Amino acid sequence: AIPGELVGAGAAFHNIGPAITLQDVIAAAADQIVVTALARQVVLALRQRSATVLVAEQVDPVEQAGTANRGAAHVYVGFEASTQTCSVIHHFAVEEFESVAGRALAEHIAAEATRFPLRPDVAGVRIPILRETVMPAVLWRIGPVEALTRSAPEITRHVVRGLVRWTELAAEN
CA 134 → CA 31, 67, 119, 131, distances in Å? Predict the structure, then answer.
C-alpha cells in the first residue's frame, strides 16, 4: 500500500509507510454543522498520519487567515457548503498573479476525486480567506449540503491523498 491508502471502512486511516511531512495543516470550516463535521473528519485523518493540525472555526475569513498565519501553518484547507450543486476547489489568483503552490494543491486534491460524483473543478479566485493567508491555501466549495454529508468519508480521503501527493512532490523539489 502507498502512503495515504485507505485501509478499512469509512475514513479510518492506518499509518502505512512514511508519515505525512507537513508540519502544520489548517482545516477550516464555516459555521455550518455539516462543514464543521467534515473538517473534523479531515483533521482526524491527518492527525492519524502524524500531521500537526489546527482548526479555525471562525466564520470571518480574515480571522481564519489570522489563525492560520499565527499558527505558522504550511498549508490551509477550507470547506464551504453551497445550497447549489457545485464542487470547486479554489486557489488564489488575480489577473497578474496566481498562487502556483495553491493551484498545485487544488489540482492534486481534484485529481484524487475523479470517482467522486461531484468531480471538483479547479478555479483561481480572489476571496478574503485565500488572499489573506500567507501559505498555499485552497477552499473546496461543495453543494448541496446533502451531497457533502453523504460523501464526507470520500472527501476526507481525497483531501488527505491530495495533501500527501502535494507534500511528496514539494519535498522532491
Answer: 23, 11, 27, 8
Per-residue pLDDT, averaged over 79-106, amounts to 92
Cis before 144? omega within 30: yes
Please tell me the distance from the alpha carbon of residue 47 to that of residue 87, in angstroms, as a whole number: 25
DSSP-derived letter for residue 51 is -
Average pLDDT, whole number, for the chain? 77
pLDDT in the model for residue 2: 27
CA distances from 48 to 14, 44, 75 (A): 7, 6, 17
68, 58 contact by CB (below 8 A):
no
Q: Which three cell numbers stand for residue 87?
A: 464542487
Cα torsion 13, 19, 112, 124 to 10°: value is 130
Q: pLDDT-derived band of residue 17, with 50, 70 and 90 as boundaries?
A: very low
CA dihedral 162, 113, 154, 73 (to 10 degrees): 30
